[in-house]
Amino acid sequence: MRKSNEKPLGKAIEEFLEAYHLKNRMNEAKLIASWEKVVGGMVAKHTKRLTVRGKVLYVKVESASLRNELIYSRTKIIHSLNREVGAEVIDEIVMN
C-alpha cells in the first residue's frame, strides 16, 4: 500500500508558514488588524501608524491627551491584542 500525502489545508498552511519563518509576520499582521476591535473606532480613527518591531508595538497618535489615555491602559491593551491573535506577539507598547 502507498502512503497518502494528503493532509488538511490548514495543516499544510501552518507547515508552510513555519518552514519559511512567516508565522511571526502573520501574527504581527493579525495584531495590527485587530487594533480597532481592541481599542475602539474612535481611538483607531486618531491613530496614524502602527508598527511592530521585535516584541514592541509602536503607535503614532494624533493628540497628547489620547496618548496619555493609551499609556494608562497599556497593559490591558497588550493583553487584549495578544489574546485576539492567540499568541504572545508583543510585550510592550511605545506611544509616539
Secondary-structure map:
Layout (H helix, E strand, L loop, with lengths): L8 H11 L3 H11 L1 H5 L1 H5 L1 E7 L2 E6 L2 H9 L1 H12 L6 E4 L1
Parallel strand pairs: 2-3
Antiparallel strand pairs: 1-2
Helix pairs in contact: 2-6
Describe the structure.
By secondary structure, the chain is an alpha+beta fold. It has one domain: GMP Synthetase, Chain A, domain 3. It contains six helices and three strands, in the order H-H-H-H-E-E-H-H-E. The protein has a three-stranded mixed β-sheet. The termini are far apart. The mean pLDDT is 93.
Reported by name, the CATH topology is: GMP Synthetase, Chain A, domain 3
Strand arrangement in the largest pleated sheet: 1-2-3
Radius of gyration: 17 Å
In CATH terms, what is the architecture?
2-Layer Sandwich
Short description:
The chain is α+β, with helices and mostly antiparallel strands and 96 residues long. The chain has helices at 9-19, 23-33, 35-39, 41-45, 64-72, 74-85; strands at 47-53, 56-61, 92-95.
What tags apply to this protein structure?
96 residues; alpha+beta; GMP Synthetase, Chain A, domain 3; 3-stranded mixed beta sheet; 3 strands; 55% helix; 18% strand
